[in-house]
Write a structure and sequence with these properties.
There is one protein chain. The chain is mainly alpha-helical. It has 2 domains: 180 residues, Alpha-lytic protease prodomain-like, CATH 1.20.1510; 85 residues, Cation efflux protein, cytoplasmic domain (Alpha-Beta Plaits), CATH 3.30.70.1350. It is 65% helix and 11% strand. The chain is built from 9 helices and 3 strands. It has a 3-stranded mixed sheet with strand order 1-2-3. β1 and β2 form a beta hairpin. α2 runs antiparallel to α5, α2 runs parallel beside α6 and α4 packs antiparallel against α5. The protein is elongated and about 85 Å long. The termini are far apart.
Length: 276
């Protein structure tokens, strides 16, 4: 499909088809990276990579986003130039290649639709082909308008529309990937609510050094130092508290945190630490 659209862009002189071809190129590269990442994330953890290679999907999504931003920037610059001096466009050829592109993208959408919400990697791949299908539709509409009215600028407007579809999605995908790489708190996890809920657990006197991040899609982690009554370490209640805290973060919030680490501290330890 990529080769057909590149030939079509050269033959027809269409900016919209050229941009759609560039979009298809990033789609093909993105799908290849998605495939590689999908294989890498299944590798088991090792002493060197204790979480395995789960963040391969995030790196792949970052590269996809940067490539899409480059395509979006190109279409804006080239589109402004062509609005001033539109070239001659082969409308019938543009229509043929636009239909071919739409059919190819509909097939890709059918393959990816059922698993698009599984992780960031697959979501990025699905959004790529979905937006590319919309781009092919814009190419078809511009071909029809050009053939019936002779308005040459419609091809450039279609290209700018494709760019407008690309940029917001690329920025959103990049932001999600950067959030993971910067170890930001998962978007649906309110740390203030987590802190408040932990403090409601019996014998808990304080919470500090509370951190939450995301290793990869569907893998949030949380750590905290929890100050509890001194007697809990003598009457055997500390393990019960630890179980309660882990259940708290795993069950009571929109983001279920299965990987949590709590350091239990007696109040006297915390007071001594602060005094030092």
């Amino acid at each position: 499909m990529l080769l057909a659209q590149v030939v079509g862009a050269i033959w027809t002189g269409s900016l919209a088809l050229l941009v759609d071809s560039a979009h298809v190129l990033t789609d093909a590269a993105g799908l290849l990276m998605a495939l590689i990442a999908a294989v890498l994330v299944e590798r088991p953890a090792t002493n060197r990579h204790t979480w395995g290679l789960r963040r391969a999907e995030v790196l792949a999504a970052s590269v996809q986003a940067v490539a899409l931003l480059g395509v979006g920037a190109f279409v804006v610059v080239e589109g402004i130039q062509r609005l001033v001096d539109p070239p001659e466009i082969n409308a019938p050829g543009l229509l043929v290649f636009g239909v071919l592109g739409l059919l190819g993208n509909l097939a890709a959408i059918g393959v990816l639709a059922s698993s698009r919400s599984d992780n960031l990697n697959l979501r990025g791949a699905f959004l790529e082909v979905l937006n590319d299908a919309l781009g092919s539709l814009a190419v078809i509409v511009s071909a029809v308008v050009l053939a019936t009215t002779g308005w040459a600028q419609v091809d450039t407007l279609a290209a700018l529309l494709i760019g407008a579809l690309i940029l917001p999605r690329a920025l959103r995908l990049l932001r999600e990937a950067v959030d993971v790489l910067l170890e930001s708190t998962p978007r649906d996890l309110d740390l203030d609510a987590v802190r408040a809920h932990i403090l409601e657990v019996d014998h808990v006197r304080g919470v500090h050094d509370l951190h939450a991040s995301q290793i990869a899609t569907g893998l949030p982690v949380l750590t905290a130092h929890v100050v509890i009554d001194d007697e809990c370490f003598h009457d055997g209640h500390a393990p019960v508290l630890l179980t309660a805290l882990q259940a708290c973060v795993a069950e009571h919030f929109p983001v279920s945190v299965e990987h949590s680490t709590f350091q239990l501290e007696p109040a006297t330890h915390t007071e001594a630490t602060r005094h030092d």
